[in-house]
Amino acid sequence: MVLFANNMNTNKVKKCRHHGVAAGFIEATLETGMIAFDVTELLDKTGLSSIAAKSQLQRLRGRVVRVSRHQAFFLIVESQHRPMGAPPVEWWLDAYFRWLGHPYYLALQSAAELHNSAPQAILVKQVMTDSPRRDLSIGRIHIQFFVKRHLERTPVQQPRNAYAPLKVSTPEATALDMVRYASRIGGMERVAETLRPLLPLFRAAELKRALEAEGETAVAQRLGYLIDNADHSKLADLVHQWLPSGMVRVPIESSKQTLVETARSKRWRVLVPEREEA
Questions:
Q1: What angle in degrees, to the nearest 10, is found between the helix axes of 204-214 and 217-229?
Q2: β-pairing, 156-157 with 73-76?
Q3: What is the 3-state secondary structure (H, E, C) of the chain?
Q4: Residue 253 has pLDDT above 80, yes or no
């Protein structure tokens, strides 16, 4: 797969032999605006053997970094990114997943952060994909993967002014994902805290589209309760209209505390900790 422009100046690559052919390849790749490449492209563009390419890349340690020790996908680390040990995830995530041949999107609190809702600092990037994948640590960058069936149904968007193509869940889809994966991202209180700044971004049509895409009644019940609790009545009404009439009671989340229905949670058939009743 081509990860950089086909019109790369191959003459420039060949002329850089005194710095190493791989170094010339990297300079030419950066000129195309790309910061990622796979070793097959390096071999094809330079004529290097696998052994020579490996040797030259090892000498460029710090200038290039492998995403995973088991994968031949590399990132170019420019001087401003060397303290982190890698360029920002948002700059190369799309290219990486195109190379893998799997769908993805930036999700959960990482997506909320891009939508300007980050009550607390997020120390990892959270990525949704379609099959189990080991978490990645590249320099000081950490990526946590979450698995979701029917990933292609989830509404996504491209952030404005992004450096590179990037799929991010919409605010509405982000909220549903956070509720669904609450136990893995700090609990429902953390979800509620992140949700509140997102709610002004919600659009009725997009919320309905996200609900239809997920099709999970229990998740929608919990989200409806959180929206209602944040006093966004119009959005809460929209969620309630989508829900079936025969809802069963669901806990707001797994808890060792006594769970009860309060005056507000009764509408959603959601059981909440007894302390919230007060």
A1: 150
A2: unpaired
A3: CCCCCCCCCHHHHHHCCCCCHHHHHHHHHHHCCCCEEEHHHHHHHHCCCHHHHHHHHHHCECCEEECCCCCCEEEECCHHHCCCCCCCHHHHHHHHHHHHCCCEEECHHHHHHHCCCCCCCCCCEEEEECCCCCCEEECCEEEEEEECCCHHHCCEECCCCCCCCCCEECHHHHHHHHHHCHHHCCCHHHHHHHHHHHHHHCCHHHHHHHHHHHCCHHHHHHHHHHHHHCCCHHHHHHHHHHCCCCCCCEECCCCCCCEECCCCHHHHCEEEEHHHHC
A4: yes
Q: Which residues, in sequence order, are bridge partners of residue 272?
A: 260
CA distances in angstroms from 201 to 113, 172, 189, 210, listed in the order given: 13, 8, 20, 14
Instruction: Give 277's pLDDT tier (boundaries 50, 70, 90).
Output: very low
| Tokens, residue 267 | 């509408």
**Beta strands 36-38; 73-76: pairing state:** antiparallel
Residues of the chain with CATH 1.10.10: 1-87
* pLDDT score recorded for residue 18: 39
How many angstroms separate the CA atoms of 203 and 151, rounded?
21
**pLDDT tens-digit readout, 42-86:** 999 999 999 999 999 999 988 999 999 889 999 999 999 999 999
- Please give the angle made by the CA atoms of 265, 271 and 277, to the nearest 5 degrees: 65
CATH code of the region 1-87: 1.10.10
Which residue is it, tokens 């959270």? 126
What is the spatial distance between Cα 201 and Cα 69, in angstroms, rounded to a whole number? 40
Q: Which two tokens stand for residue 90?
A: 């948002």
pTM, two decimal places:
0.87
Reading the block at residue 129, the tokens are 């994909």
